[in-house]
Specification:
This protein has 435 residues and is α+β, with helices and mostly antiparallel strands. It folds into two domains: 92 residues, Nucleic acid-binding proteins (OB fold (Dihydrolipoamide Acetyltransferase, E2P)); 309 residues, BirA Bifunctional Protein, domain 2. A hairpin with a 4-residue loop joins strand 2 and strand 3. Bound molecules: 4-amino-1,4-dioxobutan-2-aminium adenosine-5'-monophosphate (4AD) and magnesium ion. 4-amino-1,4-dioxobutan-2-aminium adenosine-5'-monophosphate binds next to strand 10, strand 14, strand 15 and helix 15.
Length: 435
């Protein structure tokens, strides 16, 4: 038998086909057995008629349980009643493995599905998400490469923090204590712009997030970029066009998956078509007060609730800039026109619509070495550990900047998921690190 995918068999519409896959559903009647078979591409209904097949095939068919693997040959034809509109009348059937009783049945709790994640990956929902995920990873590589970026890797074991000490994962490194898992590639990426100028990566980042929210993982995939000579506007432009590119690719390649996920693609179209609004932190405070009567004192960070309210005013991501200096990381640049009484930084957060939160965090990088040292000291850091980083500001420093994009945040939004946990095959959170 020469096997074709179920999708190809459906496209063929009639004639002899050979397919292979797993049993998705089965129904056994007195003189016929209905099997819905799935493979990576789709599902198709098959019928086995007692009087049309050998005794062995008939007996095998009656023993088959869900998730058994098998090879099938038969005639495909149109049948309105079948789930994908076609049916295969089975002539030959080869059972590759008789599955034991599959633990996942209908209506199981989220916890049960999480415990059986290795099996739940086979669901149509997870299969669809994983396909979109593959498109998004591909799109990120394509985007940066077409823009002339080099792919570059930072170490995962690091002795520095970049996004605050409270979310560091400590590692026992041969008895040494101050070793952490990377929160970001950034501090090891900045030294490399002096050789490659435009660089990007997709790598896991680790955050010891104690929050049990629908948008935090402890291990997530982080797409980051850093660019020499880049202005603050350049950084925002790259962020906007990367998001547009990812969504465009998913709309091109994954219409079927979005449909399986029940995602309304109209909600994604404005992202591709319209320019992202760019607003300052000060404007955000005014908007929140005007539209929702929310009074945020100047200098407070935007929390989930504020980001969600803000996001609800738009049908595409927005870029929020000029945050108060004290709520942002030590490496962000204070622009020349920053008010000394209310100092701000050239940091940008891209906030998704529909309550999916921050997709991108980025900034122009501070060029004044003394300002960086002052901030690090205020945070109680040992400056010696940052020598390699501070050297970037000593030997031919240039204006530069970059951003990080949470791939699972983007996926959760694109796919319209209830939780970020479904955007990654095996999610890691405060409460879950198995299977
Ligand atoms: O805003 P963050 O912390 O920025 C940085 O790490 C910078 N060093 C990036 C850079 O400039 N190179 O994180 C960047 C993005 C966030 O916007 C968010 O999308 C995602 O990473 N992110 C998380 N995603 C899932 N789970 C978490 N716990 C996340 N924390 C951040
Ligand atoms: Mg951030």
């Amino acid at each position: 038998m020469k096997f074709i995918s179920i999708q190809k068999a459906l496209d063929k519409k009639k004639g002899k086909v050979s397919i292979r896959g797993w049993i998705y559903r089965e129904r056994k009647l007195k003189d016929k057995v209905f099997l819905v078979i799935r493979d990576y591409s789709d599902i198709v209904q098959c019928i086995i008629k007692k009087d049309k097949v050998s005794e062995k095939i008939w007996n095998d068919a009656n023993k088959l349980l869900i998730e058994s693997s098998l090879e099938v040959e038969g005639e495909i034809y149109k049948d309105k009643r079948a789930p994908t509109g076609y049916e295969i009348n089975v002539k030959k059937l080869n059972v590759v493995d008789f599955a034991e009783k599959f633990p996942i049945t209908k209506d199981q709790s989220t916890e049960f599905l999480a415990d059986n994640r290795h099996l739940w990956l086979r669901s149509r929902k997870m299969t669809a998400i994983l396909k979109v995920r593959s498109t998004v990873f591909g799109a990120i590589h394509e985007y940066f490469r077409k823009e002339g970026f080099y792919e570059y890797q930072s170490p995962i074991f690091q002795a520095v923090q970049c996004e605050g000490g409270s979310t560091l994962f400590h590692v026992d490194y041969f008895g040494k204590k101050d070793v952490f898992l990377a929160q970001t590639w950034q501090l090891y990426a900045e030294p490399a712009i002096f050789s490659l100028e435009k660089i990007y990566t997709i790598a896991p980042s680790f955050r010891a997030e104690k929050s049990k929210t629908s948008r935090h993982l402890t291990e997530y995939w982080h797409a980051e970029m850093e660019v020499a000579w880049g202005s603050f506007d350049d950084i925002i432009n790259y962020g906007e066009s990367l998001i547009k590119y990812m969504v465009k690719k998913v709309l091109e390649k994954n219409k079927k998956e979005l449909e399986i996920l029940g995602r309304d693609i109209k909600k994604l179209e404005p992202t591709v078509k319209k320019k992202f609004p760019r607003i300052t932190y000060d404007e955000v405070l005014k908007l929140l007060e005007k539209k929702f009567k929310m009074r945020i004192p100047w200098g407070k960070d935007l929390r989930t609730i504020e980001e969600d309210k803000l996001g609800s005013l738009f049908d595409l991501p927005i870029a929020v800039t000029r945050y108060p200096k004290k709520v942002k990381a030590f490496y962000m640049k204070e622009p020349g026109d920053s008010d000394p009484k209310k100092p701000v930084v050239n940091g940008v957060d891209f906030i998704a619509p529909e309550g999916y939160g921050e997709l991108i965090g980025g900034s122009e990088r501070e060029s004044d070495i003394n300002k960086i040292i002052k901030r690090l000291k205020e945070e109680g850091e040992n400056i010696k550990e940052y020598k390699f980083y501070l050297d970037t500001r000593k030997y031919g420093s240039v204006p530069h900047g970059g951003f990080g994009l949470g791939v699972e945040r983007v996926l959760a939004w694109i796919c319209g998921l209830d939780s970020i946990k479904d955007a990654i095959p095996f999610p890691r959170t405060m409460l879950r690190y198995k299977p």
